[in-house]
Design goal:
The protein has 349 residues and is an alpha/beta fold. It is built from 15 helices and twelve strands. The strands form two sheets. It has an eight-stranded mixed beta sheet with strand order 6-7-8-3-9-10-12-11, sandwiched between helices. Strands 2-1-4-5 form a four-stranded antiparallel beta sheet, with helices on one face. The two termini are 36 Å apart.
């Protein structure tokens, strides 16, 4: 049994003009110690998925349908007091901006001790000792002095290390990291991600990494989900998706990386922009931006325009694309089992 199971999750925001569907039929699993990446453009639903796991979506947001099971327990029906035993204790979260997470009027030590005392019956002296130990684990220099400092006295990289230390305070089973390096420069980003990877491997902690940086995902995660307009459109082993993406949107994300462009030429880009969740196109939400949805006559394929694609198995990945389904069904089982099957399907695209 997986440590975390999300099944057919629908999340909506109740607005005056009607409900806006932020997540649609999202399903994935996470095993103990596994590292999962969730990628996509801004507005794809990545952060909503992360917040929903911990039931942190505020009104008018609500879970309309689906199931979230952690270690066999259903989270969507838990009462607040029961959920508090999971949130922060078994599942911790690292947010984008450490200055928004840390209380500016409390010292680092006070905040860490307060976190421990909220979940455990523990003496203040013992809580301070645990906090000091966690600062050592994230390689904070002079940790004794840092405990008595305020957040504004620390650099951005140091504050993010503090946030990671707080996330590890209660020895969680899962850490959800929502773009943890967005506010940092490139050098510090690499250090923070290397630290996070080291700690997860050392303590066998599962990680859900939400990011738009495919380079980070390829280095840190074992599996990945690609999201678009509130849906998962491709999922599978990270290395397989990065090396041989099947969905046109995933291919577009990879081709948009700077290293994929010819030196001196304009960067590759996906035409158009992410649709508003209040006005998502019918059928495949990506079809207005997808060159593969255009038939030989220069018109959009009817199935792309009208039918929401379901997942089809291609290699070790699940892909929601009508074109990929046609190519998979066109190939014989013998061809699919061959080593060059996925590459040939990609060339056909």
């Amino acid at each position: 049994m997986a440590l975390l199971e999300v099944s057919n999750l629908d999340v909506r925001f109740a607005l005056r003009q009607g409900d806006v569907k932020a997540l649609r039929d999202v399903s994935f699993t996470l095993d103990r110690g596994e590292r999962l990446g969730i990628v996509g453009e801004s507005g794809a639903g990545k952060s909503v998925a992360a917040f929903t796991i911990l039931n942190l979506i505020a009104k008018p947001g609500y879970i309309a349908d689906g199931s979230i099971r952690f270690d066999g327990r259903e989270l969507t029906t838990m009462k607040p007091r029961q959920l508090q035993q999971i949130r922060g204790n078994k599942v911790s979260m690292i947010f984008q901006d450490p200055m928004m997470t840390l209380n500016p009027v409390l010292t680092i030590g006070e905040q860490m001790i307060e976190c421990l005392k909220a979940h455990r019956r523990i003496r203040r002296r013992d809580a301070r000792e645990i906090a000091l130990n966690k600062l050592h684990q994230v390689y904070i220099p002079s940790p004794e002095r840092r405990l008595d400092q305020y957040p504004h006295e620390l650099s951005g990289g140091m504050r993010q290390r503090i946030i990671i230390a707080i996330a590890l305070l209660l020895d969680p089973d899962v850490i959800v990291a929502d773009e943890p390096t967005t506010a940092l420069d490139v050098t510090i980003q690499a250090e923070i991600m290397e630290l996070l990877l080291e700690l997860c491997e050392k303590h066998n902690v599962a990680l859900i990494l939400i990011t738009h940086d495919l380079g980070v995902v390829s280095q840190v995660t074992q599996r990945m989900l690609v999201m678009y307009a509130g849906r998962v459109i491709e999922q599978g082993p990270t290395r397989e998706i990065i090396n041989d993406a099947e969905h046109p949107y995933t291919q577009g994300l990879i081709n948009a990386l700077p290293q994929m462009a010819t030196p001196g030429q304009r960067l590759n880009q996906i035409p158009g922009s992410m649709p508003s969740l209040a006005n998502t196109p019918p059928g495949c939400a990506f079809h207005p931006r997808c060159s593969f949805s255009v038939d030989a006559n220069g018109e959009r394929r009817r199935d792309c325009r009208e039918v929401i694609p379901t997942f089809v198995r291609s290699g070790n990945c699940d892909v929601a694309c009508h074109m990929v389904r046609e190519l998979v069904e066109r190939h014989s089982p013998e061809h699919d089992a061959s080593d060059n099957g996925p590459s040939e399907k990609r060339e056909a695209l």
